[in-house]
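Feature request disguised as a bug: please show the residue count (455) next to Zinc metalloprotease in the output. Example input:
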Amino acid sequence: MITVLAFLLTLGVLIVIHEYGHYRVARACGVKVLRFSVGFGRVLWRRQATPDSTEFVISALPLGGYVRMLDESEGPVAPQERSQAFNRQPLRKRAAIVAAGPAANLLLAVALYAAAQWIGINEPRALLSAPVAGSLAERAGLRAGDEVTAVSEDGEAWEDVASLTDVRWRITQSVLRGERLHLMVSEPGGHRSRSVVLELDRVAGQEMDAALMRQIGIGAPYSEPVLGEVRPGGPAARAGLQEGDRVLRVDGEPVGDAQALRERIRASVQDGAGVPQTWVVERQGRMVELNVEPRVTSEGRQAIGRVDAYIGRPYEMVNVRRGPIEGLVNGAERTWDVSVLTLKMMGRMLVGEASLKNLSGPLTIADQAGQSVQRGLPEYLGFLALVSVSLGVLNLLPLPMLDGGHLMYYLFEGVTGRPVSELWLKWLQRGGAFIMLLLMSLALSNDVARLLGLH
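Example output, currently without the count:
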C-alpha cells in the first residue's frame, strides 16, 4: 500500500507541476485555458468557478495530464476571443508556453534537491569495504577501511566529498563520460593519505547496475565482520554460529571486513553445490572453529552462496546538511549534472554504446518511490527530484507528441517563415506515437525482467 500511495503521490506532484508550467505561462501570455486536467479518461472530480473560467479536473488514468487551450485548429473560436487563441500568438509566446512544462519540472528538481539538503540527509560515511577481487578498485590499491576524502578528474583540482553517496555519484558520472577518476584516500587511523586512480574508462558505456558496480569494486560501506541476526534453521544456525560472533578467518584466510566475508560466502559454490568452509570466530573472548556449508541460491543467472545470517554491523553514517545558499547552488548543480548525464545515457543507448536495459518504467518508479518513502523525507525528496529531472529532459526530446517535438516545429517555422504542413504533422504524429509506444513497451519489459530477477 505504501508503494502504491508513494507512486500516486509522485505522479501527482510531477504532473501538476508540469502542467502548471504550461498553464501559468499561457495565462501570462494572454491565452485562454479551457481545461487543466490531471490524468486522462473518465472525469472523477471537476471544479469550475464560472462558465467562462478554466475547468480543473482529475481523471481516472493518472499517467499524465494536459492543458487544453483555446485554439482554432481544435474548433471554432468566437471572433471576440480570437486574440486569446493559442494559434494566434506570436512564435516566441507559443514556444515559451510549450517549454514551460519541462522548465517547471527542472525548477522543481532544483527546489527538491535543495530542500533535501536543507533538512539534512543521513548517508554512509565514505569508508570503503574490501574491494571485490579482480575489480578496478582492487587493482587501484584500495583496501578495507580506506576513507575517500576528495575526488578529481585530473589529479590536480580536488573536490571534497561528504559521504559514500557522493563518491558513487562521481563514479557514475565518470563511467558515463568514459573518464578516469582520481580518489584521495585516508588510511585507517587517518595518519597517511594517498592518491589512487580508478580506470573507469575501461567500463565506459556499460549498464549502471549491480554487476558493473561489482566490476568497479566499490560496494557496501565498511563494516566490521560481526554477525547480526541468525535465521533459525539456516546454514549459519546449523553450524552453531551466533549473533555477535566476530569472524576472524575463513579457510585460514583473514577476513578484513563484512564485505570480504560476504564475497567469500557468495563464491562458495562449485558445480551447483555449496562448498563447506572452516570459520574461526571470536565469541566472548575465546576462539571457536566451526564448519559452515552455505546453501545455494540464484541471483539473476548466477549461483551464489548464502548462510542466512546478517553480516556486518550498521554502517557509520554522517548527516549531510547545507545552508540556504549552498543547498540551492548544489541543487542547481545536481539538476544540471543529472540532466546532462541523462542525455548522454540516452545518446549512448541510441548508438548502441549502452544497454537498453537502462530504461525504466512505472513499475521500477513505483518500487523506488516506496523504498525512498520508507527511508525518510529527505530521501523521498531526492528521489522525486531525480524523476522530475527525467520527466523534464524526456519532454524536451525532439519527438512528435512531446513538448520537444512541438519546439522543433516552431524552430522550423522560425527558420522558414511558415508552419509545418498538415500532411507532415499527421505523419510525424503517427511516427512519434509509434516511437513512444515502443519506448514504453521496452521500459515495461525491463521492469518485469527486473522483478523476475532476469536483469
